[in-house]
């Protein structure tokens, strides 16, 4: 009985000391937003306390929580690529929760086009080349055997993948040598169109336009992966993208969006409309999909969390390209002669930003120069810098191949 009482006393003492220890600890709760709009949250921010990584802000809310912070003085740091580092001294009181709001400021380094290269394609004349923006030097001009439908760039090894429906193959070019590296032959009934590439998955996926199925190619082995996806589960694919947030593939079908991992189907999101020709964009800042229907040229927003029907986004004129590369919850929509911003939180359009041209064909965003580049058949290459809200035309001899599509190559 005496030993039993001794054991009970030790357990009680340990429990009491634990409660006392926890009551002396404090918490820090934080919310991180964009400096110019406190409704726009900034997720995936690395949070450090006294030089030690302790948390990451949540993508959907911008919130973070640090448990068991000792009383006293501390130094908090917030870090995220594309934003200025934020440092905040903290004074923590015993047993209390400190609640703070932070506003992240985008980096304002001088804009430089140095090191920016473009992959330029004339799909009608079947001409392919590269162009260095600073020097104005062209790479070798290559004439392709067939008109490419889509292209995907591998940033790791500088290889360009072109879908060639006429040849039933995917051609792979080494851009460092500007030559054909290898071909990936497909079945005679394969008409590859949309392309998406993921090094994380070691896979390239294309839509077979002839059979309404998917073609999966293992990048390391340079051969078709079989099976790809179960056609009874993943039906009528229209286009495919690599989700830059997850590194996996998202696939738009005629009546659903499919989220995948490897060759496995993770989630299916039924849609309220039928899409036959469309582009898909993942909006990381608001965790939604944007569907750009090429039939009627309409935009639709879909929230996979609520799983409600798509919301139509009204536009004036016919949009040519839409991008959402920044963490400011804005769409950048290109029209024939102007650019407009759409705020996904306020659901309002910004004023027209005149490009100075009248025949825009394509648009890309370069994170290194933090600029949008617009390809216009009349003006050539136009640059828009959102930080300074300036538009300028670059004097480059694009008529050399007359490109109608391009990619940025940092």
UniProtKB/TrEMBL annotation:
Keyword Signal: yes
InterPro entries: Carb-bd-like_fold, Host-pathogen_enzymatic-act, Quino_amine_DH_bsu, WD40/YVTN_repeat-like_dom_sf
Domain of life: Bacteria
Annotated keywords: Signal
Signal peptide bounds: 1-21
Keyword Signal found: yes
PANTHER family: DIHYDRO-HEME D1 DEHYDROGENASE, PROTEIN NIRF
Name of the molecule in the record: PEGA domain-containing protein
